[in-house]
Specification:
This protein is mainly α. The chain is built from six helices and no strands.
Length: 168
């Protein structure tokens, strides 16, 4: 089964499940977050049993899951961040596959400049769509800077995770 098909099938199952728990909030969300955290820690442990950088991955997971939980308190803000991150990832993947081009970094050899630009582009399109349906002032400099920061952190996180996966 191709990587793309696996991604699509897992997304079909996990996205509605995640949205359900996010909208339920409170204890349901804490339970779901904890289960995902335990699974991620187990996978990281299995990948890095005897590696000297094992601790950095656990620190990364703790910060990531805490940030997720902290953001989930404000549902509108959470979905804003989620949509920007997901569209950045999808834009990077699609544009990188279509346009290929020069590699972005040796740390993550599948990442390209076209993918990085595509990630920003698709997340900007998502921001415009969000602005149309939600009462956010699109042309505010704060919102634009927030969008750039979220998309950049999303791409940097993706590269960081790819780096550690390849080292393991």
């Amino acid at each position: 089964m191709s990587n793309l098909v696996k991604r699509i099938l897992s997304s079909i199952v996990l996205i509605p499940l995640a949205f359900y728990f996010i909208l339920q909030g409170s204890y349901m969300l804490m339970f779901f977050t904890f289960i995902c955290f335990v699974i991620a820690c187990y996978e990281w442990y299995m990948m890095t049993k005897n590696k000297p950088y094992k601790t950095y991955g656990f620190i990364f997971l703790i910060i990531s899951f805490y940030t997720f939980y902290d953001l989930s308190v404000d549902v509108v803000g959470f979905f804003f961040v989620l949509i920007i991150c997901v569209s950045t990832d999808i834009g990077g993947y699609v544009f990188g596959k279509i346009f290929n081009g020069p590699k972005l970094t040796k740390i993550s050899p599948n990442k390209t400049y076209a993918g990085a630009i595509g990630g920003y582009f698709l997340s900007l399109i998502s921001l415009i769509i969000i602005n149309f349906y939600v009462d956010y002032p699109f042309f505010s400099i704060e919102l634009f800077i927030t969008f750039i920061l979220i998309s950049t952190v999303s791409q940097m996180g993706d590269i960081t995770v790819s780096y550690f996966k390849r080292k393991s």
